[in-house]
Fold:
Amino acid sequence: MGKHVIGAVADFPAGTRKTLILEGRPIGVFNVNDTYYALKNSCPHQGAPLCVGTVTGMTLPSAPGEYAYGREGEILICPWHGWEFDLTTGKSVFDPHKCLVKTYDVTVEALESPGVDTYPVTVESGSIVVHV
Amino acid sequence: MEQQTETKAEQKSARTGIIDCDVHPYPRNTEEIRSYMKQPWRDRYNGGGRGFFGNPVQGDRVDARPPQGGPSGSDPELLRKQLIDEYGHAYAILMPRAFCNLHPDPDFGTAIAAAFNDWLADTWLDKYNADGVFKGSITVNTQDPQAAAREIERWAGHPHFVQVMTDSGARAPFGQRQYYPIYEACEKFGLPFAIHPGTDGMGINVQPSPGFPTHYIEWHTCLSLGFQSHLVSFITEGVFERFPGFKIALVEGGVSWLAPLMWRLDAEYKALRSEVPWLKRKPSEYLRDHVRITSQPLERPDNDNHLLQIFDMMDAEHILMFSSDYPHWDFDSPTRAFPKLPESLRRRIFYENALEFYKL
Structure:
């Protein structure tokens, strides 16, 4: 379990993502409407680089013949086979209990600078920390 | 030089052992194909795929799109990196997507097929093929069988064209006699005839379901219907008796339907043999000598043993050949698409069946 500072909030606006390797594990970090989520960058199906897939919305469960579209920006489509994953939970849409990808905690923290007085920081000036 | 290339390829195949029987190379742009066409076709051709039933999510692997632009499968370096080098392929059997046989004008269809063949020969089978890893398919327009036979003859003897190919979309089942000039040429030059999904229900071709389905998920699931009809037609029309050296590859048409379809056909034959007296064997007994089927998109029941049982029932050891369908959206990873197989069976499916079928 390690904490990894992966960048500043100011450099990671809503709707963007980063893919990186932390402790040897491929991980994708997403800013979804200013909340950060981290997922293993490997699809549980055939190992595709899941986190380079399209971020979009989804057709919500509906009655036959009706379309309800929602959750824009919260759904990740696997770049190979098109399976849908909920970015906020790592769970697949088609079978959330059996098909899911590992998630990691992400926090926004003030950077500690040893030897220097620290001051309260706003979220905007914080750093994004992924907990592996 | 040719000798060196061959030796290198032999070493490579001995070392690795995957032959991928369905890989799709694309031109970088329409102009690449157009440049191989004579007028009036050059001005008329504007690319274009099958028209309907595009995948509503993504038709290709998103990570296979070249960063510098162009369609997936158009950059030989990226294809080599993501497929050939990633999995250690010995050979990739290339299947271009010309969609030539949906056109009402047979001459236009034939011109498109010829242009794709010239393009493939110059690029993927030559410029991009120093190590000989790429083997090609001669695209033919089945709507004009005589012209298709001439196109086969034009390429016969080429060191890297290893089969003839067409779409499963057709106006009539492929066992019927109007197609025989194609099969005669295939047999004469020792080239298998591969069928790949593509233009079912498009242009002048019939849709092999009751009418047109609404959704891509229906159309794509039911692509195997056309393959089943073609296979039953090939066998019952006596194509394999008329052309004893003729072989077919069913590519991307599904796998698990084969055994029960053959059970049904064999059962029918017991009562209806008199209708097809030219058959010398039970229908299913033609498969091992004449038919190969490629794996992708491999059905995966929840219980792996069920799939292994299906492999046993269908004689996968002798007729199933691995394919990935790179760079399309339903790509099957060589390392992840199959359950664990006994090593001898894995070797047959991933290497030996195709090695023998294509005489590589």
In short: Chain A has a mean pLDDT of 91. The CA atoms of residues 31 and 53 of chain A lie 14 Å apart. The interface with chain B takes residues 45-49, 52-54, 77, 79-82 of chain A (CB under 8 Å). The radius of gyration of chain A is 17 Å.
